[in-house]
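Student: I would love a firmer grasp of how sequence relates to backbone shape in proteins. Thank you; the sequence and its tokens follow:
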Amino acid sequence: MKEEVIDLKDRIFEVFKTSAEIKIKFVEKYADEIVNLVNECCERLKNGGKLILFGNGGSACDSQHIALELVGRFYKNREPIPAIALTTDGALLTEISNDIEFADVFLRQLKALGNKNDVVIGISTSGRSENVLRALKYAKNTGMLTVGFTGAKGENMKEYCDYTFIAPSEDTPRIQETHITLGHILAELIEENMF
């Protein structure tokens, strides 16, 4: 029993250490791009734009989490920052998936709600989610600022994104941990810059 507890503790420390190492590698590579993105987001927000986020599964949850930090509050009591996750309307998601096509579930909403001043953030740990890629392609072609959050195998997202942030891992939980840290940094710095 005692040996099993030690093995579990070792595993816990290993996971935390790996997660931290991935995030350090990530920020060393992308710190300057994150600063540039924050500045572009703030400029677009000041010109009437909003942040539009989407993804599948855990990435859908990350989209909602980032949007709520902006619309609600991060650290400051302030006016809401316009942001929306395209993953929250169950009726709409199932209608588009059933009556049109699941691959168009974000594209259709983006066509209805997006404008050229918006920042569109597509999140896909694999970088291969067809519904995310279709929406990013449309957004880029219509002049929206496009951002991709992905993992080590998601290089193909670069084709559709002005900014592509690639977590240096193929392990989905570690990728998602990096994505939500990036989301928190964006929310914090946008809030600080705007208010």
About this structure: Residues 2-194 form a domain with the Rossmann fold fold (CATH 3.40.50.10490). Residues 2-46 form the longest helix (45 residues). Helices lie at 2-46, 58-71, 90-99, 105-113, 130-141, 172-194.
